[in-house]
Amino acid sequence: MTATLLERRDELVAVLGSARSSGGRVGLVPTMGALHGGHLSLVRRAAAEATTVAVTIYVNPLQFGKGEDQDLEHYPRDLDRDLEAASAAGADLVFAPPAAEMWPEPPLTRVHVAGLTDRWEGAARPGHFDGVATIVTKLLALAGPCLAYFGEKDFQQLAVVRRLVADLSLPVEVVACPVVRDPDGLALSSRNARLGAEERTVAPRLYAALLAGRRMVEDEEATDPGDVEAAMRAVLEAEARFEADYAAVVRPGDLSRPEAVAGTLRLLAAARLGGVRLIDNLPATSPHPEEA
Amino acid sequence: MTATLLERRDELVAVLGSARSSGGRVGLVPTMGALHGGHLSLVRRAAAEATTVAVTIYVNPLQFGKGEDQDLEHYPRDLDRDLEAASAAGADLVFAPPAAEMWPEPPLTRVHVAGLTDRWEGAARPGHFDGVATIVTKLLALAGPCLAYFGEKDFQQLAVVRRLVADLSLPVEVVACPVVRDPDGLALSSRNARLGAEERTVAPRLYAALLAGRRMVEDEEATDPGDVEAAMRAVLEAEARFEADYAAVVRPGDLSRPEAVAGTLRLLAAARLGGVRLIDNLPATSPHPEEA
């Protein structure tokens, strides 16, 4: 069955409110469209856990920075295809508002999550996470009490969303879903479509770098996070077409760098390949317990 | 009947959710306690329009700036008295959470409303409106769909709240309530209690200054807003104990200064009297239509 397409905010509010009134549980999957297997894994998970699944499709201009006009302009848009894919994965509703419906006048309000957003992607893309936090707060306000599904692929985004939901007491349970990968290990991303054929063949090296880092953490081959980071960067840069942005060992909660390799960690990496910026991450647990 | 006192966020969420489930309409009155006749007019209005009225009492540290520790520390707190007054005015619930309940860890998230918050009170109290916008967003998220009552006394705060509610699509209808004044014209404020006896007798001059400005606008005695502002300031500073901060003619929507005295305007004033900072405002409509 094809999901119902909604374009108006008041329709979304009414439909989800009435779903809850009759005892249903709302699952929300916020996206910018160009749905791939990663998004669809979120929709399937939502369909398994909620009674009414709404996928939102909105290419949010606030999260594109000054140098990213091209990205925004060329962001792939194919609503028919997205509607079909979301429906097949179990979506009941697709909310795809026109820009003027989302913000009848340019918004003055910004939601900012301090600290968490200064580093990694935040450092590379100033203002990006304010744009993300603002649109997510708005979409969650429109959806009302719900389960909200986010991919671990954008690990820092997930941390930002978790934090704003807690700080602002939004009536939302954030559900994190694992990264979905192509068979060769490349994490699914709408940006992958912009890779040339040769670039595509070397792209899985980003994942390989993270795997190498994880092996070092698990095998206690390093106590200094810097050594793990250097090793990940070396794997990446052995391929000349890769230009590493960061390769980092972080605490999973606030994405800060630990003093030592210990406890539950997250490995983050970002690199440019051709003109495309790729990011990926992996969990890694050291046998060394974290110091209290 | 005495209102039910709630201290936990999950209790508030549950009670208001269940009120809505059984067809009720929630009215929310956010306050910092020290309830006076102004607050109570909001509670009475809420009791007339909603079926369940919740008054929140929380002295929000985020809205006190670096130089305002004294204000925060000495903010009057008398929960028993507030509970009694709120109950008498028609409150069903009083939500008065301890600080650690409101934010189990220091919040990293801030809600910022650009432009609107740079001027007037925002200029005098840097960060103040970010603190207000953040706590209001959180309280509205906790309350869920509701009517939310704010006094026009804090006119800029009201504009900030209206704007964040619109920008973030919060499921809230903001209800603005007129300023309540003592018989001599002084706008009720918890700060009035800090005025000395002599200061109290001259305090109504702030209102007199606004009335003088309004008369000029209504009688078309000025076309330049600066002339109206100078006249208001002159009334104020004829009393040596007053130190004017600003006396302004503004557009009521975004609180910007108009080119000319025309259409529907708002007059704002802030001044120090003794150690106490007082603010007040009045609507004023010019017979001159606003230029399109």
Give the helix/strand layout.
Two copies of one chain form a homodimer.
Chain A: E1 4-6, H1 9-21, E2 26-31, H2 37-49, E3 52-57, H3 69-73, H4 79-89, E4 93-95, H5 99-102, E5 109-113, H6 121-124, H7 128-143, E6 146-151, H8 155-167, E7 172-177, H9 197-202, H10 205-218, H11 225-237, E8 242-250, E9 264-273, E10 276-285
From the alpha-carbon coordinates, what is the Rg of chain A to the nearest angstrom?
Answer: 19 Å
CATH class of the largest domain in chain A: Alpha Beta
* Strand order, sheet with most strands of chain A: 1-4-3-2-6-7
Under CATH, the homologous superfamily of the largest domain in chain A reads: HUPs
**Helix run count of chain A:** 11
**End-to-end distance of chain A, in Å?**
53 Å
Low-confidence stretches of chain A: none
Oligomer: homodimer
Q: Pairing-aware structural class of the strands and helices of chain A?
A: alpha/beta
Which series of helices and strands of chain A comes N to C?
EHEHEHHEHEHHEHEHHHEEE
Please give the number of β-strands of chain A: 10
Tell me what the CATH architecture of the largest domain in chain A is. Answer: 3-Layer(aba) Sandwich
Chain pair with largest interface: A-B, 29 and 29 residues
What is the arithmetic mean of pLDDT of chain A? 96
Q: Percent range for helical residues of chain A?
A: 25-40%
